[in-house]
Amino acid sequence: MEAVFSRWPNVIVQFEDFQSKWAFRLLQRYRKTYRMFNDDVQKGTAGVAIAGLLGAVRAQGRPMIDFPKQKIVVAGAGSAGIGVVNAASRTMARMLGNNEVAFESARSQFWIVDAHGLITEERVDIDPDARPFARRKSELTHQGLNEGASLIEVVKKVKPDVILGLSAVGGLFSKEVLEALKDSSSSRPAIFAMSNPTKNAECTPEEAFSIIGEKVVFSSGSPFDDVDLGDGKIGHSNQGNNMYLFPGIGLGTLLSGARIVSDGMLQAAAERLASYMKEEEVLQGIIYPPTSRIRDITKEVAAAVVREAVAEDLAEGYRDMDARELARLSEEETVDYVKNNMWNPVYPTVVYKKD
């Protein structure tokens, strides 16, 4: 990293597909020194998942600030799964005051299930990255659960608002699991079957809507068609694709001249994506925009990142726009600043003519 930044001091470095044991270790080692990020555990999968989770709260007719009240069962404890849980818990904690009590409360909203079942403090050789989310023995007695409880047991007992799949196990959200989710404490439960490729998706939208009904909010990592529910009703299949966030976060980091990519910048990006959809769209279960709007959402995300970098005093400016000038920009002016610095992928026709 030192060699890269010595040669290209303004570069932004992306880490991709690192094993879990390396992903978090290297992230913690470099993130406060260099402009870098890990797409799996921070900026891409995690950020888009958080935006979707916040969108699911809106789909329940509730404000995003109610996110810390959501009970979330997570299937998968690899780098992507733990990355999403870490990022989501930090988002909850920031909404609750960003202190130790807030972090403790946020962590209590997650139940993580891996190949060996529910992760608790009784687990032998527990992964250090999963340890903060291990369920306590005192909680297990109250909930009627135990170490290694199966996914279906956890869903039945917890009655979660959300089940989040990052397991890479196709069909993991079986008919029994989906039937159990019908008893969710939420009036509109959400399913995030985020594993790729399609064959690894934890369930399909057809399975989700046919078993749970039209009220479920469905999102996946792979593309699926919407589902015809009959009587003119559509079950919307949302794809939580990294493309909604990483161009905007990269652009916002560049245009702000931010020294690092902070958690606050990532959260600002996710919240802007979550709030981008209109109320009537969200209430229909549409939590991500169509790809036809990708340039507009990238512009909005980048502007949110710039403003957060300024707010955290991380911005150093870009080219002729120094940090003080960035700080004076209104929200609308920041969007215009981003728009004016976006590359337009149009190739003009050049014809050579002889005199």
Automatic annotation (TrEMBL):
Keywords tagged on the record: Metal-binding, Oxidoreductase
Cofactor: Mg(2+); Mn(2+)
GO cellular component, one term: mitochondrion
Cofactor detail note: Divalent metal cations. Prefers magnesium or manganese.
UniProt: a divalent metal cation binding residues: E16, D17, D40
Example of a GO MF term: malate dehydrogenase (decarboxylating) (NAD+) activity
Domain of life: Eukaryota
Residues holding (S)-malate: N196, N241
Oxidoreductase found in the keyword field: yes
Pfam families for the chain: malic, Malic_M
Alphabetical GO biological process terms: malate metabolic process
Malic enzyme NAD-binding domain segment(s): 42-310
Keyword Glycoprotein included in the entry's annotation: no
Family: Belongs to the malic enzymes family.
Entries under PANTHER family matching the protein: MALIC ENZYME-RELATED, NADP-DEPENDENT MALIC ENZYME
Descriptive protein name: Malic enzyme NAD-binding domain-containing protein
Organism of origin: Triticum turgidum subsp. durum
